[in-house]
């Protein structure tokens, strides 16, 4: 990376973005690597880095962020352990922290969804036994656990017992007559030996060894002779404890050295993952997304400068390199030209570092080998010659390095010298950079460059919008429209006398006036087109919202309809079960009657049973044929004698015989007499009433024809109805002592024929059956022989 490229990176403020990235990293080395990031120049490497950031962002959305806290450098400690050195408790705890973080990250990466960073998690090696051995042996930097070894536990038990013995002896001293010789009735330590503070004038009254004297000389710290032996024993035990601790640390260090490669690899992978997830966190904070990497051109949709407040920054669509290779940006001072230039360069650098950029979807970036910028902070109209010279030195260096893989950014190109010469020089510099194959974006005040951009293929004008009414820039970039000079309008708004403005206008040649007029017309047309575009977008959003509401309403109606159908089917199944139960009961009663004499009251019972069965089956058929999604029928007029009504709950039709004094109705349904209230029926009018009466008459005729007739006609019936009528017919035929019957079912679709013959196979009354022969009705009838 050249010095000029590195200088351009600083000018475009990439280090400030990397500082924000480093804040998202958990480890110190991760922060350092974030700050050291530099743009990648191979497109495949950039795509890989972008995919890693995207994968981490998706994983964070589903599972949160993995923990890398507590991970510290361990390379130096591992190297010393490998050379046979014993590590201290802090170094061993750091190694345990790496092992713990590796184990946790490995578990974090075990998800169902496959990503491009799964191999990093799989490469982590768990050493739980070593991790637990270290954490179980070391309580803290200054303390080794008793459980570190059986020997250490034994030594510490003896230390506690010996120390208790010493304290007991000294405690007796404190309680004896000698306590008057003590400065204070306490037990303390000097040189790791238990002593008591004795007044200087009584130092000879307490036999023992003097270990220390206070600074004032008034107190002697004496070890009484009665505890010397115990203190010696305690000192020996403490020495053994230190040696055992050294042995434990050496053993743990040797075990770490045995796994040094796995531990070192775990550390490197954790730091690498820390940086990747830091990029994902920054993406979330910047509301950024992954750009597509293309071979040529920059297209940034709704791009925002990453260092500005995302809630206040103006988003712009920035394009360069697809339809044109050079962008000339004009507009007033402080209008946002430099920010736009920096946004193009900075977002390109960020993308090449593997960072997501604050743009909308479908944004595209080209990978450049160099991004070179000459951007100054000067904002005054008159610039010194030295400043011009400094810029020219930068431009010479840029042109010396530029090629087809270079993005060049010029700010206020040609400024600082004579306007005529500066404009000509700026056009020549841009043309030279284009000939080298570079993509160029430049800002300028020169009208000549606006004309150059309008008349040169591959060069496009752009302007930063300025609101003359408020005297403030809007920071919106308008590509394809050159910036209009607002000097006269701004001056007039600020109070400059109009006659001075008119004198100034008179000094401008007619060609420039016409050019400014054209720019004014273009700006007005642009504003009108934008208003129409906004109106069209608003209408499109409203249409999309209406379509969405329609889809939701349709889905809700479909769900309600399906629910109603399911409910109706459940009710229909319940009624059918009731019908089957009733039919079984009727058949059983009929069989019982066959075995008894046929009395008149028995026949009345048979008729009642038949009526009950018919009513149940009618309800089942009506229920199965219903359309649950249709609304309930409206109420009708009160029923009168002679009307045909429908029983609402049963779905059965009947004729009104009489209206009782209390308003209730006497109904005739077939051979049944029924009582019902007015709100339990609805009047069947017109053709519906006529059809209902005809259906009732047909049903009555069929029921009455079920005597001992040798023939039954099932044509026009539904399958369930036909089987019910057939069963009643067979019952009468058996009780009438018939040997053979003729069942007319017709040909039609064959559904009734198949149902009849399947039923005959299972009937206990049938000896045999056959299709009709020629002259008997052929396949439209079935001849059955009864047992």
Keywords, separated by commas or semicolons:
25 strands, 5 domains, 6-stranded mixed beta sheet, 5-stranded antiparallel beta sheet, single chain, Rossmann fold, 16% strand, alpha/beta, 787 residues, MutS, DNA mismatch repair protein, Chain A, domain 3
Please describe the topology of this protein.
Elements: H1 3-11, H2 14-24, H3 28-35, H4 43-63, H5 75-82, H6 89-108, H7 118-123, H8 128-137, E1 138-140, E2 143-144, H9 150-175, E3 188-190, E4 193-199, E5 208-213, E6 219-224, H10 228-258, H11 260-286, E7 292-294, E8 298-303, E9 316-320, E10 326-330, H12 337-352, E11 364-366, E12 370-374, H13 385-401, E13 406-410, H14 419-435, E14 439-444, H15 447-455, E15 459-467, E16 472-479, H16 487-493, H17 498-506, H18 510-594, H19 600-624, E17 644-647, E18 652-659, E19 665-669, E20 672-676, E21 681-683, H20 686-704, E22 711-713, H21 719-735, E23 740-744, H22 751-762, E24 766-771, E25 781-786
Parallel strand pairs: 7-11, 10-14, 10-15, 12-13, 13-14, 22-23
Antiparallel strand pairs: 1-2, 3-4, 4-6, 5-6, 8-9, 15-16, 17-18, 17-21, 18-19, 19-20, 23-25, 24-25
Helix pairs in contact: 2-3, 2-11, 3-11, 4-11, 5-10, 6-8, 6-11, 8-10, 9-10, 14-15, 18-19, 18-21, 19-21, 21-22
């Amino acid at each position: 990376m050249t010095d000029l490229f590195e200088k351009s990176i600083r000018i475009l403020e990439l280090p400030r973005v990397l500082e924000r990235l480093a804040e998202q990293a958990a480890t110190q080395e991760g922060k350092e690597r974030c700050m050291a990031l530099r743009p990648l120049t191979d497109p495949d490497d950039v795509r890989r880095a972008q995919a890693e950031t995207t994968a981490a962002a998706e994983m964070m959305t589903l599972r949160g962020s993995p923990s890398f806290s507590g991970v510290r450098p361990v390379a130096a400690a591992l190297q010393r352990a490998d050379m046979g050195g014993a590590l201290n408790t802090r170094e061993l705890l750091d190694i345990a922290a790496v092992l713990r973080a590796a184990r946790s990250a490995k578990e974090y990466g075990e998800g169902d969804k496959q990503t491009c960073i799964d191999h990093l998690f799989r490469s982590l090696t768990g050493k739980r036994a070593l991790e637990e051995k270290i954490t179980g042996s070391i309580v803290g930097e200054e303390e080794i656990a008793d459980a570190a070894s059986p020997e250490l536990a034994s030594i510490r038990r003896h230390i506690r017992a010996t120390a208790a013995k010493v304290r007991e002896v000294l405690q007796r001293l404190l309680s004896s007559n000698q306590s008057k010789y003590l400065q204070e009735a306490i037990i303390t330590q000097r040189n790791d030996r238990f002593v008591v503070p004795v007044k200087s004038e009584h130092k000879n009254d307490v036999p023992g060894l003097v270990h220390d004297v206070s600074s004032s000389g008034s107190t002697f710290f004496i070890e009484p002779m009665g505890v010397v032996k115990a203190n010696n024993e305690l000192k020996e035990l403490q020495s053994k404890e230190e040696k055992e601790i050294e042995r434990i640390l050496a053993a743990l260090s040797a075990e770490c050295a045995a796994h040094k490669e796995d531990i070192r690899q775990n550390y490197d992978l954790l730091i690498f993952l820390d940086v990747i997830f830091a990029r994902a966190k920054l993406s979330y904070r910047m509301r950024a997304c992954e750009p597509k990497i293309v071979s040529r051109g920059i297209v940034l949709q709704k791009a925002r400068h990453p260092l500005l407040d995302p809630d206040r920054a103006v988003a712009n669509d920035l394009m360069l390199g697809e339809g044109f290779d050079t962008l000339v940006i004009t507009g007033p001072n402080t209008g946002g030209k430099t920010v736009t230039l920096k946004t193009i360069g900075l977002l390109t650098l960020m993308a090449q570092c593997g960072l997501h950029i604050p743009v909308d979807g479908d944004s595209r970036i080209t990978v450049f080998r160099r991004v070179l910028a000459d951007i100054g902070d000067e904002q005054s109209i008159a610039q010194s010659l030295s400043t011009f010279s400094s810029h020219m030195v930068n431009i010479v260096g840029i042109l010396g390095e530029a090629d087809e893989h270079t993005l060049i950014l010029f700010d206020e190109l040609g400024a600082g010298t004579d306007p005529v010469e500066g404009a000509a020089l700026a056009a020549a510099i841009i043309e030279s950079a284009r000939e080298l194959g570079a993509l160029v974006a430049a800002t300028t005040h020169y009208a000549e460059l606006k004309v150059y951009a309008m008349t040169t293929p591959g060069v496009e004008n752009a302007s930063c919008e300025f609101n003359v009414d408020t005297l403030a820039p809007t920071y919106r970039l308008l590509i394809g429209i050159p910036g209009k000079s607002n000097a006269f309008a701004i001056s007039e708004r600020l109070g400059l006398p109009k006659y001075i403005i008119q004198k100034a206008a008179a000094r401008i040649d007619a060609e420039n006036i016409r050019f400014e007029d054209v720019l004014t017309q273009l700006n007005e047309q642009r504003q009108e087109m934008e208003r129409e575009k906004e109106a069209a977008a608003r209408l499109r959003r409203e249409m999309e919202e209406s379509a969405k509401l329609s889809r939701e309403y349709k889905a809700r109606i479909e769900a309600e309809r399906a629910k109603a159908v399911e409910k109706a089917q459940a009710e229909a199944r319940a009624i059918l079960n009731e019908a089957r139960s009733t039919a079984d009961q009727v058949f059983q009663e009929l069989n019982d009657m066959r075995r008894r004499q046929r009395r008149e009251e028995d026949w009345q019972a048979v008729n009642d049973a038949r009526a009950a069965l018919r009513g149940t089956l009618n309800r089942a058929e009506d229920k199965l044929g219903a359309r649950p999604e249709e609304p309930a029928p409206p109420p009708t007029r009160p029923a009168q004698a002679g009307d045909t009504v429908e029983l609402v709950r049963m779905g059965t039709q009947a004729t009104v015989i009489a209206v009782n004094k209390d308003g209730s109705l006497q109904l005739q349904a077939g051979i049944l007499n029924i009582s019902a209230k007015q709100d339990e029926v609805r009047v069947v009018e017109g053709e519906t009433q006529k059809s209902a009466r005809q259906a009732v008459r047909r049903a009555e005729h069929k029921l009455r024809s079920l005597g001992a007739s040798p023939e039954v006609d099932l044509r026009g019936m539904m399958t369930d109805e036909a089987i019910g009528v057939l069963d009643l017919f067979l019952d009468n035929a058996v009780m009438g002592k018939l040997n053979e019957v003729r069942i007319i079912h017709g040909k039609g679709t064959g559904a009734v024929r198949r149902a009849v013959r399947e039923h005959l196979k299972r009937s206990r009354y049938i000896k045999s059956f056959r299709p009709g022969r020629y002259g008997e009705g052929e396949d439209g009838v079935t001849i059955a022989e009864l047992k």
